[in-house]
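Ops channel
N.P.: pipeline sanity check, posting one input/output pair.
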């Protein structure tokens, strides 16, 4: 097992969604300087879903022209585009263009669309590329994909994005510029106003950092293709693939199964087993009903983790205080790669466990959604236990469902290249359905209410 290959696979995975994740965490700093204001997240939601033309094209090519599309040139193209777009974003994000009677941030919106195409298309190209490496590196890739959310979040915390302090609107700043207590934002005398503190470094520096991360991803991809040590890994993988089903299952067993090795059957029995296929999907390991179940769980889990719950995260956490919001966002981002590490050492490919974890994670998500619906006065808003509960719930929600996603990826990786293409397509489909479902609820009908961070009063 090559440590270098693990590092490269992780860096390659970081580039999958680092650009759009970085855009989201930087929103609190840039929205006040843009004409769209806090409508910008709604615009970004629609833009990201429009960018699914990239995955749609790749999926249709694999469906109607199987074997004709090599994902490697596509990856070179989209990662290079991501590096250029984030570099341009660093210098053009403030520019406004007249559109009709209003000013709009056209350069930022166009570049955001290009970055969305890059990241959405990575779902159906990066995973199939990992088929060229032994199965043990897939969980490392998923770890990197999880870090694509954590790394920008940590940099944004260092930057000081979204830190708010309250001061008296008529008499100047409060003594020591203290932050309001969660759920008791109006305890000070007089009308208070929220003042967002200046960042430790500019948005331009942050976007340049994202451009560097895309270049790192490009460099990792180059080495995965051309480094001699990685080439030896690929040759080993191809040899095992030619060795037949027995050899392939042996390799899979090294990295993906925790059960004791099965006794090898005689050659005649092995040939008979190869003829037994439970369905036409992949290698026929799973029945048609089980395949449908796996993909439905995959779509549901990605809808919740990528679209539905993130769209109400601020409503569920900010009533408990600014610190609770940042802690929940950061620790949830940490939970994703932690789930990948757990799956690396304890990979349980049980559909029953998958269903149990999905139901459990959905239960955590239901509590988060309930607190968002009760905003700005959710349960236990005046209590430290309420703050701890919402943070822990976010961590367990991401941890349980991220483990499900990784295990599904491992299962589908064993079913072949086409299965991973469909895996990426269903990930994007679930995310799109979740986003389009939440957009009218949040942005059109206004079913969720945000409080004034300095003046909201909640009953004791």
């Amino acid at each position: 097992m090559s440590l270098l290959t693990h590092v490269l696979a992780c860096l390659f995975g970081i580039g999958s969604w680092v650009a759009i994740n970085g855009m989201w965490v930087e929103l609190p700093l840039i929205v006040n300087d843009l004409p769209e204001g806090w409508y910008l997240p709604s615009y970004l939601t629609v833009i990201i879903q429009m960018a699914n033309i990239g995955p749609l094209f790749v999926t249709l090519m694999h469906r109607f022209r199987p074997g004709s599309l090599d994902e490697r040139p596509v990856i070179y193209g989209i990662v290079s585009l991501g590096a250029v777009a984030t570099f341009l974003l660093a210098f053009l994000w403030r520019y406004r263009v007249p559109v009709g009677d209003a000013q709009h941030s056209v350069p930022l919106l166009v570049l955001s669309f290009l970055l969305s195409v890059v990241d959405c298309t990575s779902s159906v190209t990066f995973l199939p590329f990992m088929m060229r490496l032994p199965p043990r590196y897939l969980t490392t890739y998923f770890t990197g994909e999880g870090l694509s959310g954590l790394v920008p979040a940590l940099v944004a915390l260092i930057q000081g994005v979204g830190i708010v302090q309250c001061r008296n609107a008529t008499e100047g700043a409060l003594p020591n510029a203290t932050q309001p207590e969660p759920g008791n934002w109006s305890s000070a005398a007089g009308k208070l106003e929220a003042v967002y503190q200046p960042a430790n470094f500019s948005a331009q520096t942050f976007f340049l950092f994202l451009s560097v991360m895309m270049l790192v991803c490009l460099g990792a991809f180059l080495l995965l293709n051309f480094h001699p040590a990685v080439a030896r890994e690929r040759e080993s993988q191809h040899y095992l693939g030619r060795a037949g089903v027995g050899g392939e299952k042996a390799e899979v067993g090294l990295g993906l199964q925790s059960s004791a090795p099965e006794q090898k059957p005689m050659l005649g029995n092995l040939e008979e087993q190869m003829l037994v296929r439970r369905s036409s999907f992949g290698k026929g390991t799973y029945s048609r009903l089980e395949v449908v179940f796996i993909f439905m769980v995959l779509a549901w889990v990605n809808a919740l983790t990528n679209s539905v719950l993130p769209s109400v995260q601020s409503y569920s956490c900010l009533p408990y205080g600014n610190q609770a919001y940042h802690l929940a966002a950061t620790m949830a981002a940490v939970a994703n790669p932690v789930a990948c590490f757990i799956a690396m050492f304890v990979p349980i490919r049980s559909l029953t466990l998958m269903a149990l974890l999905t139901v459990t994670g959905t239960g955590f998500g239901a509590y988060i959604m309930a607190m968002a619906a009760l905003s700005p006065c959710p349960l236990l808003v005046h209590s430290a236990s309420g703050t701890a509960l919402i943070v822990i719930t976010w961590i367990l929600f991401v941890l349980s469902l991220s483990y499900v996603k990784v295990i599904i990826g491992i299962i589908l990786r064993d079913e072949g290249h086409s299965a991973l293409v469909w895996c990426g397509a269903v990930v994007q489909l679930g995310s799109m359905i979740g986003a389009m479902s939440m957009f009218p609820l949040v942005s059109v009908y206004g079913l969720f209410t945000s409080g004034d961070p300095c003046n909201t009063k909640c009953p004791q």
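N.P.: looks fine end to end. The CA atoms of residues 96 and 105 lie 5 Å apart.
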